[in-house]
Design brief:
Chain B is α/β, with parallel strands linked by helices. Chain B is about 35% helix and about 15% strand. Chain B is globular, with a radius of gyration of 19 Å. The chains are: A alpha/beta, B alpha/beta, C alpha/beta.
Chain lengths: ~400, ~280, ~325
């Protein structure tokens, strides 16, 4: 689906929404019943909207004392059985990392929205950036898998927020929703409720006799059934490396088995997790790889270039992590060169270079606090095409 | 009536026996604190399935693993924040936080003061042994002045925190303090805390005998425990550095009560009112 | 100050029992009120003193409440009449002895007039710590062993009243002293309405109603007691004497959990525990163990469990099964 040309179906609930408000509405539609947050530009509208929406559906909104507490409360609420979310930006995302690692290790479903703004440190709170791509994947210490989604339009924020909850609940993993300030505060006409079965996904809850139950024992699918407090299982949940019974262990075999399962949980489901969009990649000599607002600029640039006879195409990862590498390899198979426009010094390019090892990959990097303009991308495509012809 | 009225409580009914013996050092006061909590749970007839214990990192944080309940051992300093989410999500559970002096007052201090202010129903037990025991005996926010630790080789120069005064000032609904030596009194204090509709903060003065006690030549485990109220800490509470010890001057029991609206109930009733108004 | 009563003639008619018709004349009337701190002895005496003064008598009330912290002995002398010189009541001179606690009542009995004194005593027992001779549950106490019947038979007119229970039934255990005031009121010719007004003045506003109920309950109990039994006899509330249970203490010590910290050994009041050769706690002198549970409570490792085994019950079981288990 082309994200910018998606037109509302006639009967749908059509609204003019900002990206952040779309995220908030999608959350309640997905069944989110708990939000804990802390004010930070440019994500605060998500919290503001949910403080209004959650009480309507018997959910709980709480503004915590800091970003760390917000992440902790979200995990706490999820351990209690509610679909839970927090939203933040740059500095707040850094502060959430330790507890995000806890959610990954203890396998507590949750959704974390990071609206990217200029960094490092306090950086440029009101300016867009795409510089948290690597942090989203590797931000917490230690080895762990997670899912990160990178929507590029208001409509896609809505859909991907719902998908974020579905993936989090299905696979017992934290899911990061990563988008930039431009689409966060951009208002677009969107039709709600047309595309996605809303909030149907339920976590795999433990059932059966408590005596036989082991909270981290997974039958074939690598996803352990989660104990609901009060349901009689009385288990232990810890951030320490744990065995299948949930209790801490440093037994090398148990440690290896558990971490391997954690990775296999997502690795074995790439068909369901990976998502991307390709435009004109079939015959493209230059393939552009971009996310978010940069991808939207690239779409315009591709049209301009094609009009001038330069065959350019776009590969847009929607699931950013795990990176849809097989799809990129296929999309770029015939390309002479790859261009990666991004609002940072080259984070996405690193991953593209890894995936397409040996292929010529160029970056177009803007980290001035401005979005990359289509003309800049078009110029880079033209120059790159000349270089490789 | 049986002559043995205390017999009805068998602590092992509330322990995960497969985890025993626990990993705490010989003479560690935390075991007594744990007994008092489990005894209080027993007395109040709280169903183990309806009990959730959230603990942080450190020696105190490890206690949750031994309790036969829904237990959550979370990140350093954050158990109150995790418990806030859990209690808001699940008002049907009794949520108890077990934390230590470093966990609660240093890295987690911000969560404590805001939990006191917010007044969500939680029972927070802060086990104060004046030291970071698990990491080898470093100075903590409650270490008495002049004490030796592995990071105060010249004697602690920093003033300590009076956690109960802090919690009271921050508006906690219930504030109490007791020593581990008085297990039945501690049990009664925890019961009062568990019954309180709001945030209950209870400081439990415990002994780190193996690390802190040895470093400061405070005598054997029994000796340290016997002196809990008389010698060890009075100078750390109420008195300033150079004034002499005031034996038995440690304030214990319920130190503050403040019946403000419980946050979770207040939130839910405001939300329900808004929903009804919208119809 | 006038020495003559100006309102005594308006007093209510005497209660049914002639023995209770005490009227101060030339000699002052002596009322001794005793109990322990926290029970409200002083309140009882103040109500009486104020009422007597309002009825036109000269009143002297002297109290000792140096031990008025909860549990300490407290007493108060109230003397009233046309002229009262001495503030305290000599031994054997009290017309009425009101006791809020059983043993305190017995302790002050020598102050009562031997032939005519009226003894009104709550059967409530408050055992002071120093009366505990030994930590064994149910062990003999250094506390009065006399039953109410024993005592009542020794005084002119005696009432052992379970005022605490009555107050509890009314919803406030602390109103026991007012139950006793009600009982006292039957022994004096002051109008009941005046009693009630004075009581109402002394108690917190919220508790006026429960206290007046308590007053009437105490008054009714005595009057009923007089109707049921001849005045010369006395009525005692039933208070079963506790029997000493026969039991044996057994300690379960989980060696695998014991970490040899020595706390149980050092805190045992009977010094009956020790660490064995493997430095595991053991009960070295079982016969000395009272089963106080300090070791169980203070063992940081949950390694000790105290069992008090009822020997009499075991013997009965064994007898019923015909063979020891």
């Amino acid at each position: 689906m082309n994200v910018v040309s998606a037109m509302p179906a006639p009967a749908a609930d059509v609204r003019l929404l900002s990206g952040n408000h779309a995220c908030a509405l999608a959350a309640t539609a997905a069944g989110c019943r708990f939000f804990a947050g802390y004010p930070i530009t440019p994500s605060s509208e998500i919290a503001e909207r949910l403080s209004l929406e959650l009480p309507k559906v018997d959910g709980v909104f709480v503004q915590m004392e800091d970003e760390i507490a917000a992440m902790a409360a979200v995990i706490g609420a999820s351990m209690g059985g509610l679909k839970s979310m927090t939203a933040t930006s740059g500095p707040g995302f850094s502060l959430k990392q330790e507890n995000l690692g806890y959610a990954a290790g203890a396998e507590i479903p949750c959704v974390i929205v990071n609206v990217m703004r200029g960094g490092p440190s306090t950086g440029m709170p009101t300016r867009p950036s795409q510089a948290d791509i690597m942090q989203a994947r590797w931000g917490s210490h230690g080895d762990y898998p997670l899912i990160a989604l990178a929507p590029a339009s208001v409509r896609e924020i809505y859909d991907e927020t719902i998908r974020a909850f579905d993936l989090a609940e299905l696979y017992r993993t934290p899911v990061v929703l990563l988008y930039d300030q431009v689409i966060a505060q951009l208002s677009e006409t969107v039709a709600l409720g047309a595309a996605h079965p809303r909030g149907r996904v339920e976590r795999k809850w433990a059932s059966g006799p408590a005596a036989d139950y082991k909270p981290y024992a997974a039958d074939g699918d690598a996803i352990p059934a989660m104990p609901l407090p009060g349901a009689g299982y009385r288990t232990h949940t810890t951030g320490l490396t744990h065995a299948e019974d949930g209790f801490p262990t440093q037994n090398p075999e148990a440690v290896t088995r558990n971490l391997s399962r954690l990775f296999s949980k997502l690795d074995g489901r790439r068909d369901a997790i990976d998502s991307w969009e390709t435009i004109h990649c079939e015959d493209a000599e230059i393939v552009i790889v971009a996310i978010g607002i940069s991808a939207r600029a690239a779409m315009r640039a591709i049209e301009e270039c094609r009009a001038k006879g330069v065959r350019a195409g776009l590969f847009r990862p929607v699931t950013l992590w795990p990176f849809p590498q097989a799809a990129l390899r296929e999309a770029a198979a015939k390309a002479k060169a790859v261009l990666v426009p991004e609002m940072n010094t080259g984070q996405l390019r690193l991953e593209v270079e890894r995936v397409l090892a040996g292929a010529p990959v160029k970056g177009l990097n803007l980290f001035s606090g401005e979005a990359i303009a289509p003309a800049q991308i078009a110029a880079s495509i033209t120059a790159l095409a000349k270089e490789v012809r | 009536m049986s002559i043995d009225t205390a017999a009805a409580f068998d602590v092992t009914d509330y322990l995960r026996k497969q985890m025993m013996p626990h990993f705490l050092c010989p003479g560690c006061g935390h075991g007594m604190a744990l007994r008092a909590l489990l005894w209080a749970i027993h007395d109040l007839e709280i169903d183990k399935d309806a009990l959730a214990v959230v603990s942080g990192i450190g020696c105190a944080g490890r206690l949750s693993a031994y309790i036969d309940a829904n237990t959550f051992h979370v990140t350093h300093g954050r158990p109150i924040a995790y418990a806030t989410g859990l209690a808001l999500a699940r008002p049907d559970l009794h949520v108890v936080v077990i934390t230590g002096d470093g966990d609660c007052l240093a890295i987690g201090g911000n969560h404590l003061i805001h939990a006191c202010r917010r007044n969500l129903k939680l029972t927070c037990l802060m086990l104060n042994n004046e030291v970071y025991g698990m990491t080898g005996g470093q100075v903590s926010p409650t270490t008495s002045q002049s004490r030796l630790t592995t990071t105060t080789p010249l004697g602690n120069a920093e003033p300590h925190f009076d956690a109960c005064a802090l919690a009271t000032a921050a508006g906690a609904g219930f504030v109490g303090r007791e020593v581990t030596r008085h297990v039945p009194k501690l049990k009664e204090l925890i019961k009062a805390g568990l019954r309180h509709e709001g945030f209950a903060f209870i400081e439990i003065l415990s002994d780190c005998t193996e690390i802190f006690g040895r470093k400061n030549e405070m005598g054997s485990s029994p000796e340290m425990m016997m002196r809990q109220k008389s010698e060890l800490r009075p100078s750390a509470y109420r008195d300033t550095v150079d004034t002499p010890f005031r034996a038995n001057d440690l304030p214990t029991g319920i130190l503050a009560r403040n019946d403000r609206p419980e946050y979770g109930a207040a939130y839910r009733s405001a939300a329900a009112a808004a929903r009804n108004g919208a119809r | 100050m006038s020495g003559s009563p100006n309102s005594a003639s308006e007093a209510a008619p005497a209660p049914a029992s002639p023995a209770a018709a005490v009227e101060p004349s030339a000699e002052p009337l002596n009322v001794l009120i005793v109990g322990v701190g926290g029970q409200g002895v002083i309140m009882v005496s103040k109500v009486l003193a104020l009422l007597a003064q309002a009825q036109g008598f000269q009143v002297k009330q002297s109290e000792v409440h140096g031990m008025a912290k909860r549990g300490g002995a407290v007493f108060s002398h109230v003397r009233f009449g046309r002229q009262v010189w001495s503030p305290t009541i000599p031994k054997g001179e009290a017309d009425i002895l009101i006791a809020l606690e059983w043993a305190e009542g017995l302790r002050w009995l020598p102050y009562l007039k031997p032939e005519t004194g009226i003894f009104i005593c709550d059967t409530k027992r408050i055992v002071p710590p120093f009366a505990c001779l030994n930590r064994r549950p149910g062990a003999p106490l250094r506390y009065s062993r006399e039953t109410p019947a024993d005592v009542i038979s020794q005084v002119g007119e005696g009432y052992a009243i379970d005022a605490t229970q009555m107050a509890e039934e009314l919803g406030n255990e602390r109103a026991a002293n007012v139950v006793l005031l009600g009982a006292l009121s039957t022994a004096l010719r002051f109008p009941a309405a005046d009693w009630e007004q004075t009581v109402a003045k002394f108690v917190p506003k919220k508790t006026v109603s429960v206290n007046l109920d308590a007053f009437r309950r105490g008054r009714a109990w005595i009057e009923e007691a007089r109707v049921v039994t001849p005045a010369v006899e006395s009525r005692a509330a039933e208070a079963p004497a506790p029997a000493d249970p026969a039991y044996r203490v057994r300690l379960d010590i989980v060696a695998a959990w014991c970490k040899s910290c020595d706390i149980c050994v050092k805190i045992c009041p009977e010094r009956c525990l020790r660490l064995n050769a493997e430095r595991i706690a053991e009960l070295a002198e079982p016969e000395k163990c009272t089963g106080c549970r300090l070791c169980e409570w203070l063992c940081p490792d949950f390694a000790i469990r105290v069992h008090l085994e009822d020997i009499s019950a075991m013997a009965a079981d064994a007898a019923s099964e015909g063979a020891p288990r």
